[in-house]
C-alpha cells in the first residue's frame, strides 16, 4: 500500500530578479541581453543593475560618471529611475502572488513571503513553478522562489534559485542546509556580527551550527540565536510587524539649484503630501514638524572628508493640535519655510520631518471643540472627521491611478525644482499619454498570449499621445485592440 506524503508547513520567498532593471527590459526587450543600469532621481548614482551589468563589476551606488569609459566600451544602457512604473509593476506582481497564496507578507517592493500550512511539499513545488511561469507570462519579469521550513532557509533557497537557469525554484528541507554556504550571505547577519564570526574562524553555516547556544548569544545576542534556530529548521522569526515610526521624514534634492520661493514651496508641498500619506497609513497624528533647507554653499570646515558639508537652515514648530490633515500640515510647513527662506540664495534640497507622533485615538478635544454652531455641523470634531475622509479618498485615488495625481495648488506653482530624470522611460502602465503604440496584429497577439513583450523587435517603439495620428501608425480598428483609453474615441 502506497504511503501518503507527509504534509508540512513551509515558508515561501518570491523574489524578483533585478527588479528595476527587469521592469525596464519588460517593455524594451531589445535590452534583455545588454548591461543596464538604473539611476537615482537626479541621475547621479546607480541604484539597480541587470545581471550583465553586475558581471562587469559595477557596484551598487557607483556614480555614473565614474564608469563613463565602461559605458562606451560595453554599450551600457543607462536610464533614470521610473518609480511610478516600478510601484505599479510591484502591485501587479503581488496581486498574482496573492491569487496563489492568500496568506502572504509583502516584505519589500520586489519580495514577498508566503505561507503554506499542512500542504504536500510536492504540490507546493508544482504550485510555485506555475506561479513563476504566470508572473513571467503576465508582467514579463522573472522571479526566484525559495521553499523551506523557515524564513532564513527560504532566503537561502531563493538565492540558490537565482543561479538556476532552468527552474528558478529551489526547496530546502530541515537539516539539509549547505554547510559551506558563506556566513556573510546569511539573511539577518549584519556586518558587525559577520566581523565577530570571522574573527573566531566561523566562515560558513557549518561553523555557525557547531557553536553552542551560549556562544552564539555571546557573539550576536538573541538575533543571531534566532538565526541559528532558523538554520536548523525551527521557525523563530514571527510574521513581520510594522512598528509605528517615531518620526517621518521626506526630502529630495532638486534637479538644479533653486532660488525662487515658489519653487521651494512647491517642492515642500509635494514632500509634505507624501509624509502625510505615511502618517495616515499607520493611523497616527503628528504634533510637531521641522522644515530643513540645504544651500549650495559649502560650510567652512577643516574636515578632510571627501564629502562636502553644505550649509543648512532649519526651524521646528509645534502644531496647535495633533493632526494628520494634509492641508493643515502644509499650511504650517509653509509658514515655517517663510521664516527661514532667504532671497537671492541658491538651495539644493528641502525636506520636512514630522515628530511627536501618536495614535489617532490619542487625540484629545477641548470643551470648545464640541460646541455646535447654528447649522449644527461646524464643530471641530466634525470638521476633522470630514477632512480625514477627504484625505483618505485622495490617498486611494493617488494609489490607484498614479502617484501625485491629485495635489494641493501650492504644489503646482513651479516645476523648476523637478528631479533631472533626463533618461526616464515612459510610464507605460499608469499614463495614457505614454502607452506603447503598436499595430493591430501585435496588439491582438499581446492580448491573446497575455505577454507584454511579444511585439516586433525591428520596429522602434515610441510613446505617443492617445489622440495623435500619422500615416506610419494607423489607428486600431478593433475596439479590444485599441491603445486608446475607453473614455476617448480613436481618431
Describe it.
With 491 residues, the protein is α+β, with helices and mostly antiparallel strands. α4 runs antiparallel to α5 and α10 (261-281) runs antiparallel to α11 (326-340). It has helices at residues 19-27, 51-55, 68-74, 83-100, 121-139, 151-162, 191-199, 205-209, 213-231, 261-281, 326-340, 380-401, 440-449; strands at 8-16, 36-39, 46-49, 77-79, 104-108, 111-119, 143-148, 169-171, 248-258, 284-298, 310-323, 347-355, 358-359. Helix content is 35%, strand content 19%. It starts with 7 loop residues before the first strand and ends in a 42-residue tail after the last helix. It folds into four domains: 1-176, Alpha-Beta Plaits; 180-241, 5' to 3' exonuclease, C-terminal subdomain (DNA polymerase, domain 1, Orthogonal Bundle), CATH 1.10.150; 248-412, Dna Ligase, domain 1; 431-491, no CATH class. It is globular, with a radius of gyration of 26 Å. The chain is built from 13 helices and 13 strands. A five-stranded mixed sheet has the order 5-6-1-7-8. Strands 9, 10, 11, 12 and 13 form a five-stranded antiparallel sheet that branches. β2 and β3 (46-49) form a beta hairpin. Residues 440-491 have low confidence and may be disordered.
Poorly predicted runs of 5 or more residues: 440-491
Helix content: 25-40%
Task: Please trace the helix and strand order, writing H or E for each element.
Answer: EHEEHHEHEEHEHEHHHEHEEHEEHH
- The second-level CATH architecture of the largest domain is 2-Layer Sandwich
From the alpha carbons, calculate the radius of gyration and give it in angstroms.
Answer: 26 Å
Q: What's the β-strand tally?
A: 13
